[in-house]
Amino acid sequence: MLSIQRRHFLVAMGGAGAAASLRPFAPAPARAQEDQALPEDFAWKDADSMIVHTELTLETERDAIGTSGVTSKDVLYIRNNLPKPGEDIVAAPDAWEVSIEGVNEPRSLTVGELKQMGVETVSSVLQCSGNGRGFFEHDASGSQWRTGAAGNLLWSGVPVRAVAEALGGVAEGRNFMTSTGGEDLPEGVDPKEVVIERSVPIGHAMEHAILAWEMNGEPVPLAHGGPLRTVIPGYYGINNVKYTKRVAFTEEESDASIMRTSYRVRPVSVSGAPDQPSMWEMKVKSWITRPLADVQSGRVLIYGVAFGGINALDRVEVSTDGGENWQEARPLGPDLGRFAWRPFVLAADLEPGTYTVTSRATDTEGRVQEEVTEPNHRGYDYSGWRVLAVDVTVV
Amino acid sequence: MLSIQRRHFLVAMGGAGAAASLRPFAPAPARAQEDQALPEDFAWKDADSMIVHTELTLETERDAIGTSGVTSKDVLYIRNNLPKPGEDIVAAPDAWEVSIEGVNEPRSLTVGELKQMGVETVSSVLQCSGNGRGFFEHDASGSQWRTGAAGNLLWSGVPVRAVAEALGGVAEGRNFMTSTGGEDLPEGVDPKEVVIERSVPIGHAMEHAILAWEMNGEPVPLAHGGPLRTVIPGYYGINNVKYTKRVAFTEEESDASIMRTSYRVRPVSVSGAPDQPSMWEMKVKSWITRPLADVQSGRVLIYGVAFGGINALDRVEVSTDGGENWQEARPLGPDLGRFAWRPFVLAADLEPGTYTVTSRATDTEGRVQEEVTEPNHRGYDYSGWRVLAVDVTVV
């Protein structure tokens, strides 16, 4: 348990060590104290709402997630595996081309052409596979995200199903939809080692995937994958390939490293391999967003967000005593659908003291958010409600 | 009819006259041709998506409204009756104070205090009373808005009902909720002549009104009324008072000019008076957003937005022959609730030619969007589907 605490403090204090407590579990730290400048490429983000991990990784402050249900692009996290392409590719978004392969009549299509093939709007959680890595005990490499590598967006685009139908249908024997990103690849490296190329099961893709040109009512910003992003509702962020330049229906999963050995769930110290589960379907999860700091005694409104992952959310409960007792929280705003998150609130009457506040979501299949997330080598998706708790001091 | 055309062209061509056609009705012009710079206060808006009327009035381009349902602040219209207060009032939004009057225990509350009193999230259309003024035949003074003085937002805030309850309940005999804006008033003028102060019936306010601190997942921007905006779902924009500094439950409507004589619906050339209907409840309305320019023959996706105004939307139909024949359109994305708009789409197979494309919404009370909007002195809310049509050339 000491190492959980160490990690918390390392994250919260920008790398400096701090004394560990002996509490039976480790509530999450409050707002990060650093005040690091935004990288130039993302200078338009709301600086007060972002934690800067690196030039390519920005996290949303835990209490910057509001109650609207939809996450503004100004506070949405950034996690790019490669530097993004130049702004020129979003200057004329309708001209962007995507190659459609593994259909009976393969061809390239512009975004302008896609816009005449069909359209759907879906709200879905975008969550980095490593969200919550900072809560694991073991020393998983990568950005030490806490809760803020996640957001909920509205996406509009053409269903992959409609594109396949327009091109004569999917060719025989295809089991996966494989999307390739349009990033420039560094020279002198085997492209397979660096290309962003992800495969997902064709059944889910044909039912739910879209090629999206719009996010939250605007053309998808370059920073978030415009002019065309693959959106796989219910799947971790990595599968939502940015600047999509190729969509192929394939017999096998891609042999790119990012598919073959990366984003594979395995025990600590085990190498990644294709026979391990890939980071596809998201888990049921929730967390408290506010309050994080001291509050006045009396009626306290406790806020958070909850989602079912691959399934719809059924309900969310809140505990103010570290999981001994639970009360059902009230969902806020419109239900944005199966793959969206839902803000929630619970009004609690709290006397002065310290409270360990956490939340626990249940999906429509009866799956309950886990209490503890077992370690996995890369520290993917810490979802355990015990460690996602926050300590609130009521004065 | 000539004067309708004249107005269209005046708007489209930035004031220059143009030859009028003799078409039986006047489809709306395509994208505005001007390329006027954004005012400094709103330089953060998306310039390509905005039509600049004045320093205080910006309209959203008709085809800049997407299919996400929620309107990004970057493209949301601006219509301020007075210059907005300084940015300092949103620097510490929780410290903003609002005086609550006409309750049994009147007092001032900070936004921070309001946040502990209750919360609801509602999606509602924000539409300027004068939206569509540019489509009227008569010479109504004011911004010549076409379709773009409207957007749909997600708002979070405390229900007015909860605030009243917390302060001992509404005092006896109160019939209206009156909100006052926090703008600095110009000197040397009777404050009653310029203050932004609007009254709405108390029944609707107690059921639906909120005092909102969040818009689309972020603190309400100053430009849109932050740190605290009165939101009256289903009511025209003017009732959604910005920078709210006072909320009073009153026996009578405010005697400020903006309530007493402005925003009153009356015949052309008649002066405003308190016995005329106030611009409160919105009408059922829809319009086509795309395509506005030439398109290729074959399958054409026709997009638009529709809302029920004070009631929920039931359905929307599209005609490609100027209203002779109608087909039911498909709603897009999640249903955001009674007061929200809903994007829609219709796939039409169109041969080369010119098509007059329009849409017609019906609310859940069976009220059908009007064909023609009768003139009213100030040119409020042109909603008639015949004139809101667009001409589309299929090549």
User: What is the CATH class name of the largest domain in chain A?
Assistant: Alpha Beta
Give the largest interface.
A-B, 46 and 46 residues
User: What is the helix/strand order of chain A?
Assistant: HEEEEEHEEHEHEHEEEEHEEEEEEEE
- Ends distance of chain A: 28 Å
Compact description:
2 copies of one chain form a homodimer. With 395 residues, chain A is mainly β.
Task: Kindly describe this structure.
- 2 copies of one chain form a homodimer.
- Chain A is built from 6 helices and 21 strands.
- With about 400 residues, chain A is mainly beta.
- Chain A has 2 domains: about 180 residues, Oxidoreductase, molybdopterin-binding domain (Sulfite Oxidase, Chain A, domain 2, Alpha-Beta Complex); about 110 residues, Immunoglobulin-like (Sandwich), CATH 2.60.40.
- The relative contact order of chain A is 0.15.
- Chains A and B meet through strand 6, strand 7, strand 15 and strand 19 of A and strand 6, strand 7, strand 15 and strand 19 of B.
